[in-house]
Amino acid sequence: MKKDVVIVGGGPAGIVTATTAKKTYPDKSIVVIRREREGVVPCGIPYIFHTLPTVDANTMPIKGAEDLGIDFIFDEVDEISTDSKMVKLSGGESIEYEKLVIATGSQPIFPPIKGSKLPGVFTIAKDKEYLKSVYAAAKSAKKVVVVGGGFIGVEVSDEILSDGKEVYLVEAVDQILMAAFDKEFGTMVSERLEKKGTKLRTGMKLCEIKGEDKVSGVVLDNGEEIEADMVILSIGYRPNVKLLENIPVHRGITGGIWADEYMRTSVQDVFAAGDCVEHKCFFTRKPSRLMLASTAAFEARVAGSNLFSLKMVRENHGNLGVFSTSVAGLTVAAAGLTECTAKMENFDYVVGVAKGIDRHPGSLPDKSEIFVKMVFSKESGILLGAQMAGGKSVGEMINIIGLGLQKGITVNDFLTMQIGSHPLLTAAPTSYPLTLAAENALMNLRKE
Known about the structure:
Layout: E1 2-8, H1 12-24, E2 30-34, E3 39-40, E4 59-60, H2 63-67, E5 71-74, E6 77-81, E7 86-89, E8 94-102, E9 106-108, E10 121-123, H3 128-140, E11 143-147, H4 151-162, E12 166-171, H5 183-196, E13 199-202, E14 206-211, E15 215-220, E16 225-227, E17 230-233, E18 237-239, E19 270-272, E20 279-280, E21 287-288, H6 293-305, E22 323-327, E23 330-336, H7 339-344, E24 349-357, E25 369-377, E26 383-390, H8 394-406, H9 411-415, H10 433-447
Parallel strand pairs: 1-2, 1-8, 2-5, 8-19, 10-17, 11-12, 11-17, 12-13
Antiparallel strand pairs: 3-4, 6-7, 7-8, 9-18, 14-15, 15-16, 20-21, 22-23, 23-26, 24-25, 25-26
Helix pairs in contact: 1-6
């Protein structure tokens, strides 16, 4: 069999690469190879434990891609030869390609801790059948220990707690969500989780998982022992690049695939997108271990557009890290650099903060208080990053920040920003939180 484009991996990066390529090059034949017939929505995984009724409710459909004329093969790839431009499948079939896209995603890190292989110990793998076993264990468990205070660990803890279980959340550093937020935002989330009933253990490391035939508890580095009949390890993911061990594709220091601004790898006609790629920070240009479905989709659109020619100059200048989550009724979001990172990377910066209400008047029943923190370059006034906390409107407000970061928006741009407002939908135009935070930053700049 011969196809113009072969895509290995059928998660967000693989699907979006395929659909973008088909829309850009409609005459090209495209096939996506993936192991499972039904994939999961990665960001939706935590919500299988309570908000969603079943694991099956978190399925990522492929019908839209099939309707475009994209083919799917459900099999595993045994070997890739970039010399002969051939992909060999476990089922015995070989597919010749003109362009190859690696979109193999990531795998959860499974630490070599004593007891980690006991029944009742799980990771959050992006595998539907495996997640069904995690779901079943969570439903029958009474005491659950979640290890890792990043997005997945925090969201999973919140969901399992909502399902009526006793939950401990263990994080090695002093703050949850530390990679994404400054301390005050991590504290807001911690307070909400503790008020809801989560038992936080920050600044403590997991030393051992106890049990004989099944997990019975954990031991922390301060000597504390916690009883548990389920342990979930959520300490991060690593690029899934095992398939590329015998391929001369250059890899970065994080182990991910090196790719240029157009998602081209070091091998001719081979592209890569998503979690398997080594990302770069938009501002520092340093390698980043950040893995997000939104980043994967962005990279996939860049790759799919430019497979055969650079029809549109669509460059990847780096990873902004635009995220949001909702924990215990509080939405927090971030994009770009935190103040902590700006200080660590030696940026000369100024901070602006503001509080406001996301409805007007503030007496409306579904109003929420919004807290905004923005970081600007002192010299140029260019926005370096922002964080927000409040109601659900924060999840969309952060996307304004994301686009602004890409376009080099400045403190003065925020002051003159023209917005649409409505009492039932937005903050008042007279006190829009982003504008107020920019005003505060300008005032702080003038004081210095």
